[in-house]
Design brief:
The protein is α/β, with parallel strands linked by helices and about 375 residues long. It has 15 helices and 9 strands. The strands form 2 sheets. Strands 1-4-5-6-7-8-9 form a 7-stranded parallel β-sheet.
Length: about 375
């Protein structure tokens, strides 16, 4: 089965489209819910599957990705699956060497230090052909899901990918990347364009392979103030949405809803709501009612329980979910956490979160 034989797959019929309906702004009978990093180390079965091979080898195994994607759905009645992968497969496909160091996170052996380092990067046009393993994982998972819930594909946004490529790993300040923005604005734009050119065919390829929605992670938005964000992040975020939608249409593929999640990017909420995405993801630092007032009725909101709230008792989780749902309102809303699940979280509490969303959102609609 050719992953790039655009739209050639026939997949099992979707039985639960609540997540997609909410993403498109249609009415739903209850509030759909999924969790960022729902396929993660908090699940003992995830740790068991992952124990035998290193992180990026797992990402390159369609069977392993499929299994990890499906694990949380066996435990919880989640309303969407998100493919197990990593945002750093894109810099890898551009020719950069990245390893995942246990306990430390990603590490680039030769980060971008000078302007001429950009010449080492592969042509962004070849990136999608390097990432066939992600497309295969999506197609396999879509088959195995048997229409239970929709499958979300994803990628990192250009600025967030740039930070990893320049910092060489995680950073608390992003000082090296921001030094690029201030000292080498032209080279920075060149790099961000290369990343955008790589992301567009990669995301379109995910849809062709079977992804039914796409999320763009601008995880490091908070390191930029409003000025830098509107200059170096927002234009590329907009460009990705616009070009992906145009390419899907050109390829004769049905449109899919797109989600933008810019963590700590609350200063740009209005701009993000008009950036061409159907859904705007919020982190836990944003008050739902205020966010709703600021974005208006034109987009769906997704979020935004503090992941650490899952350390509370199941009863308290229920109360916090109730308040969150009351504040977001019943429609144009997808429940989620404000960031990914942490490895030491109790799966029972994740289950309590999911059940509370379903239970309370049905009650809200009755009243």
């Amino acid at each position: 089965m050719e992953a790039n034989g655009l739209g050639s797959q026939s997949f099992p019929e979707l039985k639960n489209d609540t997540f997609l309906r909410a993403a498109w702004g249609e009415e739903t009978d209850y509030t759909p819910v999924w969790c960022m990093r729902q396929a993660g180390r908090y699940l003992p079965e995830f740790r068991e599957t992952r124990a035998t091979q290193d992180f990026f080898s797992t990402c390159r195994s369609p069977e392993a990705c499929c299994e990890l994607t499906l694990q949380p759905l066996r435990r919880f009645p989640l309303d969407a699956a998100i493919i197990f992968s990593d945002i750093l497969v894109v810099p890898q496909a551009l020719g950069m060497e990245v390893t995942m160091v246990p306990g430390k996170g990603p590490s680039f052996s030769e980060p971008l230090r000078e302007e001429q380092d950009l010449e080492r990067l592969r042509d962004p046009a070849v990136v999608a052909s390097e990432l066939g393993y992600v497309f295969q994982a999506i197609t396999l998972t879509r088959q195995q899901l048997a229409g239970r819930v929709p499958l979300i594909g994803f990628a990192g946004a250009p600025w967030t990918l740039m930070t990893y490529m320049v910092e060489g790993g995680s950073s608390s300040t992003m000082a090296q990347s921001k030094r690029w923005l201030y000292q080498r604005p032209q080279a920075s734009h060149q790099l961000l364009r290369i990343l955008t050119d790589a992301l567009v065919p990669y995301l379109v390829g995910q849809v062709a392979a079977g992804a039914q929605a796409l999320q763009l992670f601008e995880s490091h938005a908070g390191h930029l103030g409003p000025q830098l964000f509107s200059k170096f992040a927002l234009p590329y975020i907009r460009d990705v949405a616009k070009r992906v939608k145009a390419k899907l249409q050109e390829a004769g593929l049905a449109p899919v809803p797109m989600i933008i999640f810019a963590k700590d990017g609350h200063f740009a909420l209005e701009e993000l709501a008009q950036a061409g995405y159907e859904v705007v993801g919020l982190d836990w630092t944003v008050a739902p009612k205020k966010a709703r007032e600021r974005v208006g009725k034109t987009v769906t909101l997704q979020g935004n329980l503090d992941p650490c709230a899952l350390y509370a008792s199941e009863e308290e989780i229920g109360q916090m979910v109730q308040k969150m749902l009351d504040d977001f309102g019943p429609q144009r809303y997808i429940a989620n956490l404000g960031h990914g699940l942490y490895p030491d979280m109790d799966p029972e509490h994740v289950g309590a979160f999911v059940d509370a969303v379903h239970r309370h959102s049905r009650l809200l609609r009755q009243n």
